[in-house]
Design brief:
Radius of gyration: 27 Å
Order of helices and strands: HEHEHEHEHHEHEEHHEH
Strand order of the largest sheet: 2-1-3-4
Distance between the termini: 51 Å
Helix content: 40-55%
Number of strands: 8
Largest sheet: 4 strands, parallel
Structural class: alpha/beta
Shape: elongated
Length: about 280
């Protein structure tokens, strides 16, 4: 039997940060994914603020001959760590200072040295949270009065992916609301009064819709011969939706064979809204 398999090599690595160390963790995990046979042991130290504490951590890393990955914004602490590593031969990768200093050199602007600055909660973050709460609260047309407040209104027959698409748009910071289109149900009058420039109609290939609806019937343990999943019913609903879209004068997106990400990108492009990730 392979000796390497029986006793995989052990690698100790230290994550040092004056914030949560998320950047370093992601980087190291992406590197170690290339070495599946290594027994990698992570030692993670976060919110480091005292030189004495940092020195004790470095001494432990040195005893284990570990690799050190550092995301420390504070110059004094970062310099202390680098000096220790130079003196002892401990390998340390500074994942912030070299890049921040180069930006400062090119722009003439000094770095803030604020720990975890990328995680600061700003207005954009809270706007995104509000958008997600809005989308969950008014999913599937729960309260038509919210149509005016919505940034984007998605219309579509059952199984066109309205809810996941709205949730994706909400994560991007947009209050997205969807209304199910059912020929027998009356539409809220407000739909015809709001700005048609924020309404998007979804359509899909009848064969794909049939497949999705049959799958849903199986999940619920219901008969797959129900009218809901029949090709005739699907054709009727799509025709109804198409007439409504023409009446509203709204853009229509065929979501057949499109990912949620692609559909969202098309919607934002049509509505002339920025693609944002806050």
């Amino acid at each position: 039997m392979n000796n390497q398999t029986e006793n995989p090599p052990v690698l100790h690595y230290f994550i040092l940060s004056d914030s949560i160390g998320e950047t370093a963790v992601k980087l190291v995990k992406s590197i170690l994914a290339q070495f599946p046979t290594i027994d990698a042991k992570m030692h993670r130290y976060t919110f480091i603020s005292e030189p004495a504490h940092l020195k004790r951590i470095l001494e432990k890393a040195n005893r284990l001959d570990a690799l050190v990955y550092m995301t420390i914004a504070d110059n004094e602490l970062a310099n202390l760590a680098e000096k220790y590593c130079v003196q002892t031969g401990l390998i340390c990768y500074n994942l912030i200072q070299p890049y921040a200093l180069e930006v400062a050199r090119r722009t003439g602007v000094r770095p803030s040295e604020v720990s975890g600055a990328q995680h600061e909660l700003d207005d954009q973050y809270f706007n995104r949270v509000k958008a997600m709460e809005f989308t969950v609260s008014y999913d599937d047309g729960k309260n038509p009065n919210a149509l005016e407040e919505a940034d984007i209104v998605i219309l579509g027959v059952s199984r066109t992916g309205k809810t996941p698409l709205c949730m994706y748009l909400a994560v991007m910071g947009y209050k997205a609301m969807n209304l199910p289109l059912i020929p027998e149900n009356d539409l809220p009058p407000l739909l015809f009064e709001i700005d048609p420039g924020k309404i998007i109609g979804l359509t899909n290939d009848p064969t794909i819709l049939n497949k999705h609806r049959l799958s849903r019937m199986r999940e619920y343990g219901m008969s797959q011969t129900s009218r809901y999943s029949s090709k005739e019913r699907i054709a009727e609903e799509l025709e109804y939706a198409d007439k409504l879209y023409k009446e509203l004068g709204c853009p229509v997106i065929d979501v057949a064979d499109r990912s949620i990400e692609e559909s969202a990108s098309i919607i934002l492009d049509i509505l002339n809204l920025p693609i944002t990730w806050h």
